[in-house]
Amino acid sequence: MSDLLLLGLIGGLTLLLLLTLLAFAGYSGLLAGVEVSAGSPPIRNVTVAYKFHMGPYGETGRLFTESCSISPKLRSIAVYYDNPHMVPPDKCRCAVGSILSEGEESPSPELIDLYQKFGFKVFSFPAPSHVVTATFPYTTILSIWLATRRVHPALDTYIKERKLCAYPRPDPFHVPTGTAGRLLCA
């Protein structure tokens, strides 16, 4: 009788573990759709502190962690230069960091110095007139992995279906708060 009870307990715990993993994957965006649209950019001119990475996009988590640990209240940003479905993983390039300022405001010199002290470079992006954007949830580290497999194809399909000239191409612009996009050319 105790063996049957033990097997039942093990089975119940295994089922509970599987349900927990499924709930975590769902919360991370497994069942979420990728919403793609074209129009005004979600971000205007931005000044970012970043580090360059060459290699699989799945290995960028440490850079997100590093930039967030310097100033946790700033939003993270990544600029992915290559489509991982067309470029070998070891050749994929991206820049990962934090948004120091948006719009007309300038970042404080202290903030710039702090990021530079940790090896980050600082760059200002001008505001594009039109972009293709994709929205995907960023709730866990698994969200990044899911996004690298779902956002690129959704952006590619949207651009091809509408015969848009989007560049940098195939360079999605990913903001882990849930927005990705590409600049549009006229």
Describe this structure as you would to a colleague:
The protein is of the alpha+beta class. It has two domains: 1-31; 35-183, Multidrug-efflux Transporter 1 Regulator Bmrr, Chain A, CATH 3.20.80. It has four helices and eight strands, in the order αββαββαββαββ. The chain has helices at residues 2-28, 61-70, 109-117, 141-161, and strands spanning 35-39, 46-54, 76-80, 93-102, 121-125, 131-135, 173-175, 179-183. It has an eight-stranded antiparallel sheet, covered by helices on one side. The protein is globular and about 75 Å long. Mean pLDDT is 83; it is low at 169-186.
Notable characteristics:
alpha+beta; Multidrug-efflux Transporter 1 Regulator Bmrr, Chain A; 2 domains; eight-stranded antiparallel β-sheet; 8 strands; 25% strand; disordered C terminus; Testis expressed 264, ER-phagy receptor; Reg_factor_effector_dom_sf
The 3D shape can be described as globular
Looking at the structure, the CATH topology of the largest domain is: Multidrug-efflux Transporter 1 Regulator Bmrr, Chain A
Structural class: alpha+beta
Please identify the top-level CATH class of the largest domain.
Alpha Beta
With strands numbered from the N-terminus, the spatial order across the biggest sheet is 1-6-8-7-3-4-2-5
Average pLDDT for all residues: 83
Total number of helical segments?
Answer: 4
Helix content: 25-40%
The share of residues in extended strands comes to 25-35%
Which regions have little confidence, pLDDT < 50, spanning 5+ residues?
169-186
Along the chain, the helix and strand elements come as HEEHEEHEEHEE
| Largest sheet geometry | 8 strands, antiparallel
Q: Give the total of domains.
A: 2
Annotation, overall tally of beta strands: 8
Any idea what the radius of gyration is? 20 Å
How far apart lie the N and C ends?
A: 75 Å
Protein name: Testis expressed 264, ER-phagy receptor
InterPro entries: Reg_factor_effector_dom_sf
